[in-house]
Amino acid sequence: MFKEFNAHPKGIKTGDCVVRAIATATNKDYLECRRELNQKKRELGFSGYKDTLFLYKYLESNPRLIFKAVKGEPRIKGSDFTELHPKGTYILKMAGHITACIDGVILDTWDCTYRSVYTAWEITQ
């Protein structure tokens, strides 16, 4: 299931999916979240917080679900994930995108439920 939601304080649709997803899933202020990500990125020695390795380090304290490719079978899609996980808060690493899923609903600025899910981190504040 998908619901349109934009955590950006000015409602701007921009390429900020990492900040939007983390701010949404952790219920943090967007600008505060962006400042925190920039600070952590510098501390960990990354050039950007969109780097996949940065995300793995930043979210490493959260339980992680991995969805490996199975030969001959389609990968799990965002829509499948929402059905399999109707409760809880997750950050989903998808094909070329990051989004938030809360209680079986993907919250984002566009419907990305058709994208494959590679990893999900459970956010347990």
Cα-atom radius of gyration: 14 Å
Averaged pLDDT, please? 92
Q: Which structural category fits the helices and strands?
A: alpha+beta
The helix content, as a percent range, equals: 25-40%
- Total of domains: 1
Cα end-to-end separation:
23 Å
Beta-strand residue fraction: 15-25%
Uncertain stretches of 5 or more adjacent residues: none
Total number of strands: 6
Which H/E pattern describes the elements? EHHHEHEEEE
The best one-word shape is: globular
H/I helix tally: 4
Largest sheet: spatial strand order: 1-5-4-3-6-2
* Major beta-sheet overview: 6 strands, mixed
Q: What does this 3D model show about the protein?
A:
- It is a single chain.
- The chain is an alpha+beta fold.
- The protein has one domain (2-122).
- Helix content is 31%, strand content 22%.
- It has four helices and six strands, in the order βαααβαββββ.
- It has helices at 17-26, 30-44, 52-58, 78-84, and strands at 2-4, 64-66, 89-94, 97-102, 105-108, 117-122.
- Strands 1-5-4-3-6-2 form a six-stranded mixed beta sheet, sandwiched between helices.
- Strand 3 and strand 4 (97-102) form a beta hairpin.
- Helix 1 packs across helix 2.
- The longest helix is centred in the N-terminal third of the chain and has 15 residues, at 30-44.
- The two termini are 23 Å apart.
